[in-house]
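Notebook entry, structure prediction.
Reason for the run: the old model in the group folder had no record of what sequence produced it. Starting over properly, with the input documented here first.
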Amino acid sequence: MINSTDIYDKLYCLFIDNAREWVLELENGLLRLEKYPADRELINNIFRIAHNIKSTSGTVGLEDIYNFTHKVEDILSLVRQGKLIPDRNLIDSLLESVDLITEMVEFAVSKKQFDFHRCEDWMERMEMYING
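New structure, fully documented this time:
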């Protein structure tokens, strides 16, 4: 008989393993974006990575990561649409988001509660980008 707790634990561990790789890919992609801000393939890849983190964190019930990465995905969607230019300030802010996601993932590893209030300043700054 399949135990749902075992399945959840396996999915959770799989998320952690993937998320650790994805945040590295996300960081490397953003650093490349500084040099190649018009690279559509790179922009699409960065968006997909953020989408993967968002969707899989939601699947395993990590709501803080899901909610925060959803905001990152919103910003990257605007970049994809050409509504935001990935200038130095925006890329620096997105790199800051990678640091926060990394911390949240490491808190999830230890099954400790991350202080989501630490993300609020970043999210407020991103609202300014979204709202013009």
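Summary: The chain has a mean pLDDT of 93.
The old model has been moved to the deprecated folder.
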